[in-house]
Amino acid sequence: MNKQFSTPQRQSKIGVLLIFLESLFKILKGLWVLGVYLLVKKPSLEMLSYGLIGLLGLGIVTLFFSVLRYKNFKFYIDYTKEEFILQKGIFTREQLNIPFDKIQQVYLKRSLLQRIIDVYEVVIDTAGSSDKEVNIKALSAIEANSLKDILIGLSLESSFTDSSIVQANNQKVKWRHTLTPNTLLKLGVTSNYLRGVGLIFAFLATVITELNRFTTTNNSFYHEVITYVETNFTSVNAIVLILFIAFIFTIILGFIISTVEVFIKYFNLTLVQTETSMEVEMGLKTNTKTILKPRRVQMLIFSVTPIHKYFNLHKVRVVLAGSSDQFKQQKNNLTIPGLPIDKLAKIKAFLYKKDTETTDVRIKPHRILIFRNILMASIPLLIFVVFVYLFLGWSWPFIIPFILLYGIVMYFFVKKYYQGLELKITESFIIKKQGVWQQKLKIIEAYKLQSISIKQAIWLKKRGLYRVTFHTAGGDLSFPLVPQKALTSINKILYKIETSHKVWM
User: Fold this and answer.
1) Which residues cross the membrane (predicted)?
2) How many CA atoms lie within 13 A of 66 on its CB side?
3) For FRET with 483, which of 34, 79, 257, 411 sits at 20 to 30 Å CA-CA?
């Protein structure tokens, strides 16, 4: 009896339509300049006819090549050589062989178009490469889930039988959590609203620039606008009222933008934990389904702001192993917001079987960090004072209150940052705490460290202070101004890395 996917096979037949529509969309997107030209110039009927004939011919050629791409795209699993094999190409045939132990992550994606035609996209991500992941864009739900489960199983175990696949698929669900629309609304209102406001200001800046260009060539319109403003908005109260209304409108619009972004990105976010894995599914525009295995996780980052803490909405970021490419490292970060504290504890217990609270060593940076941060934060204040004094002619009685206010706020934040910055080293974990407004907790299992680098600036040599960076396959964790006596604990970690036989990925 042949095992699943052991013989070369194509995608679902409806995949031809998906390939054709995606290719056609890319071509038309590249021809948008021509479309604008035709709208502005108002071409004749004859020219439009030639244009439509050209588009029809372009569509036929695109369909022809889409069929060729579909027929030449094949994939299968070679159980003997322990490889996943992908064949593709029209004029140049390409064969990609991926060993099972190089498969880092397998997950499912669905764009709006893929949901309309009822197909799934299987994404295979490999470690140690900056190349784009492998995408199989059109499989049925049964085929996509079967391929995903088999490849994940084969990447973890070299001898993976059909019976174990069935057992993995029938595992009992331990708990499930779904973000409700009410939770998404709270996240949208309390998250990234400054980004929404920033987008509004960027849009307004563009509009103002275009209006300036228009008024330079239309003086009559410019004078009409000036006359209208001078006639209707003469009082200070009216101007203040308009500015206040504009400010409130901008803030509300910023909230709306951030809320829409949250709904699109995290719509129907669902976590399901079984005995051996955790499944995360989310997204409205592009729906993704990811399987988390404890061994794949390189770093866990918990974060919360006072507002989110009040609403019991915590965020966790799971950093998976990836390449050295910065863009791909960002793609290997899985962010899960809006979690209550009890679900946070369950995720932590699943990914880390050992307790992370037992602390062997606590390391605080040297207090010189306070002075350094105050010095860096004083640079904007110095620039502000020089500008208003030399160019705006402000007198010192007006400048000094700004200096005092800025200094008090700056010292408060710098001191709070120092008080919250701490490095904990246990027998099995490296834990970093930081943050003033947004509190962060970063956790790395010691055996997953690839290396530790210790650097010392020339001006810190006399004080015996170092910057320590812990390197993992998913990213780095740095801690500044570590005293020399704390390096003993770090040397113990280096020894454990060298002597550990655990598989880090």
Assistant:
1) 12-35, 47-68, 193-215, 235-257, 370-392, 398-414
2) 22
3) 411
Q: Write out the two tokens for 173.
A: 């669900």
DSSP state string for 221-287: HHHHHHHHHHHH--SHHHHHHHHHHHHHHHHHHHHHHHHHHHHHHHTT-EEEE-SS-EEEEE-SSEE
Say if residues 251 and 79 touch (Cβ distance below 8 Å).
no
Q: Please check whether residue 69 is in contact with residue 62, taking contact to mean a CB–CB distance below 8 angstroms.
A: no
pLDDT the model gives residue 433 = 96
* Apex 488 CA angle, 482 and 489, nearest 5: 80
Q: Amino acid identity of 292? A: L
> Quick one: tokens of 413?
């934040």
Spatial separation of the C-alpha atoms in residues 356 and 300, rounded to whole Å: 12
Q: State the Cα–Cα distance between residues 188 and 252, nearest whole angstrom.
A: 12
Residues of 357-385 as b/e, b for ≥16 C-beta within 10 angstroms?
eeeeeebbbbeebbeebeeebeeeeeeeb
Phi, psi at 438, each rounded to 5° = -100, 110
User: Distance between CA 81 and CA 99 in Å, rounded?
Assistant: 8
Contact 79, 160 (CB under 8 A): no
| Structural element, H or E, at residue 97 | strand 94-99
CB 496 within 8 A of CB 450: no
CA dist 332 and 212 (Å) reads: 44
For residues 181-209, average pLDDT = 72
What distances in angstroms separate CA 342 from CA 177, 314, 345, 416, one per listed residue?
11, 10, 5, 27
Q: For residues 280 and 500, which has the higher predicted lDDT (pLDDT)?
A: 280
The pair of three-digit structure tokens given for residue 201, joined into one six-digit string: 């200001």
**Residue 307, C-beta contacts closer than 8 angstroms, at least 6 positions apart:** 190
447 Cβ neighbours under 8 A, 6+ residues apart: 428, 496, 497, 500, 502, 504
Residue 441 belongs to what H/E stretch? strand 439-445
What does the alpha-carbon distance between residue 64 and residue 19 come to, in Å, rounded to a whole number?
Answer: 11
What is the number of H-type helices and E-type strands within the chain? 16, 20
**In whole angstroms, what is the distance from residue 268 CA to residue 178 CA?**
7
pLDDT per residue as tens digits for the range 144-167: 989 988 988 887 664 344 434 444
Q: Report which secondary-structure segment, H or E, holds 151.
A: helix 141-156
- Tell me how many degrees the CA angle 112-118-124 measures, rounded to the nearest 5: 80
Cα–Cα distance measured from residue 13 to residue 353, given in angstroms and rounded to the nearest whole number: 44
pTM for the whole thing?
A: 0.77
Angle 152-156-162 from CA coordinates, rounded to 5° = 65
